[in-house]
Amino acid sequence: MLSVALAGKPNAGKSTFYKAATMADVDVGNYPFTTIDANRGVSHVRTRCPCLDLDSRCGNDNCHDGKRYVPIELLDVAGLVPGAHEGKGLGNQFLDELTNADAILNVVDASGGTNAEGEPVEVGSYDPVDDVEFIEEEMDLWIAGIIDRNWETVERQSRSPEFDFEEALTEMLTGVGASEYDVMGVLRAMEYSADPFAWEDSDREELARRIRERTKPIVVVANKADIAPEGNVERLKEAADRVVPCTAEGELALRQAVEAGVVDYDPGDEDFEITGDLSDAQAEGLERIRGVMSEFGGTGLQDALDEVVYELLDRITVYPVQNDTKWTDGQGNVLPDAFLLATGATPKDLAFAVHSDIGEGYLHAVDARESRRIGEDHELSEGDVIKIVSTAK
C-alpha cells in the first residue's frame, strides 16, 4: 500500500489532520510532542468510480455514489524541532520512521501561531514560510549524516578490485528508502568522481539533497488557513512548489458531524448539507466551516491527499475484474478492487500488483471498457477496468 507521512513542527496540526483523515482515536493536544509513538492508519484518496458508466452504482463500501475512495497508509510521527537530525526532540525517531514513506505532507501552521520549537504563540507573530525550508533542511542533514558516517567504509571498499561505486552507494542509501533505480537516477544528474577519496563535503551534501528530493517528495499543507492572517497562504505558495490550503480542524468537525448523523458530507466535497438537529453553537460553528470551504473549495484535507498521490507521485487508479462484461469478481461483486499504479504501468504490472502468482502466470489482458484484448506493453490509464487472464487462479 502506498505510504504517505505527515511531517512538521509540533503543534502544527499533524495529529488533527491524521485523526480527520483516518478517524482513528489519537491524542490531539496544544503542546509539543503530543505524538510520541508513530501512528499508522488507513486514509483514502478520492477519484471518479467507473461505476458511473454503468446503469447503477457498484455498491462498494469505498464508493459513495460514484466517488471512489482508494486506501493508502498515513503515518503520523513526532514533530520536528531545530536540530532534529542531531537527535534533538524526538528527531531521530521521527526521521527513521520516514524511511519507507513514498511522499511527505509537510503540515505547516499557516496562521503563524506556533514558533520554531512548536510552542503556541500569538497568531501572526511567527513567519510560517520558515517552516517550508526547515523540514527540507532537517531531512537533508539527516541523510547527509548517514552518508558521512558510512563514507569511510565506502573508501575502504574502493581499494578492492571488484569495487563498484554505484553499488556501494545503493547499499548505503537503502537505509533511507532509496532503491538502485533512485541512486542511478540521482548520479546521472550529477557530475561526480567515481573515486570516493575525491569527494568533498559539498558533494556528499548534494547527494543527500538529491536523494531526498527523489525519494521523499513534499507537498506543503497550509493548515489553519481559516485563521491565517491575510497574505500568509499566498506567501507559502510562493515559497514552495506545491501548497494546499487546509483546515484539518474543520474537516474533523465535519466527519464527526457525519458520524453523529447530522450532516451529509463526503470527504473532498466543496459543501455539506445539514440533515439533523443542531444547537445554535453547533450550527454557528458549521457555518464558519462552510465559509472557509467556500473560499478554498473545500476543507483542503482531501485535496492534500489527492495532490500528493495523483499529482506528485503521478499515480493512476486501475480496477481488475474477472468478468469483463459485468465488471465483477468471481463472487459477483462489481468493481471490487482498486489499485494505485505508477503512470506508464502495463497490464502485467497490474497482474503483479494483484498477486505475484497472477503476474508470474500472466497470459494476456482485456480492456473491459472496449471489450478488446490489449498488449503486454499497453499503457494503462486512470479509471481503466481490466481483466487479467493468467494460469494462476
Layout of secondary structure:
Layout: E1 3-7, H1 14-22, E2 39-48, E3 63-64, E4 67-76, H2 91-97, E5 103-109, H3 130-157, H4 165-173, H5 180-188, H6 201-215, E6 218-223, H7 232-239, E7 243-245, H8 248-259, E8 263-264, E9 273-274, H9 280-296, H10 301-312, E10 315-321, E11 339-342, H11 347-354, H12 356-360, E12 362-367, E13 372-374, E14 384-390
Parallel strand pairs: 1-4, 1-5, 5-6, 6-7, 10-14
Antiparallel strand pairs: 2-4, 3-4, 8-9, 10-11, 12-13, 12-14
Characterize the structure shown.
- With 393 residues, this protein is an alpha/beta fold.
- Among the domains are: 3-38 and 77-137 and 217-309, P-loop containing nucleotide triphosphate hydrolases (Rossmann fold, 3-Layer(aba) Sandwich), CATH 3.40.50; 316-390, Ubiquitin-like (UB roll), CATH 3.10.20.30.
- It contains twelve helices and 14 strands.
- The chain has helices at 14-22, 91-97, 130-157, 165-173, 180-188, 201-215, 232-239, 248-259, 280-296, 301-312, 347-354, 356-360, and strands at 3-7, 39-48, 63-64, 67-76, 103-109, 218-223, 243-245, 263-264, 273-274, 315-321, 339-342, 362-367, 372-374, 384-390.
- A hairpin with an 8-residue loop joins strand 8 (263-264) and strand 9 (273-274).
- 41% of the residues are buried.
In brief:
With 393 residues, the chain is of the alpha/beta class. It is 35% helix and 19% strand.
CATH topology of the domain at 3-38 and 77-137 and 217-309: Rossmann fold
Q: Per CATH, which architecture of the domain at 3-38 and 77-137 and 217-309?
A: 3-Layer(aba) Sandwich
Helix/strand-derived category reads: alpha/beta
Considering the protein shown, what is the CATH homologous superfamily of the domain at 3-38 and 77-137 and 217-309? P-loop containing nucleotide triphosphate hydrolases
The level-1 CATH class of the domain at 3-38 and 77-137 and 217-309: Alpha Beta
Oligomerization category of the chains in this entry? single chain
The total of beta strands comes to 14
State the major sheet. 7 strands, mixed
Mean pLDDT: 91
Contiguous uncertain segments of 5+ residues: 27-36
Radius of gyration: 23 Å
Our count of helices gives 12
Q: What spatial form do the alpha-carbon principal axes imply?
A: flat
Strand content: 15-25%
Q: Helical content, roughly?
A: 25-40%
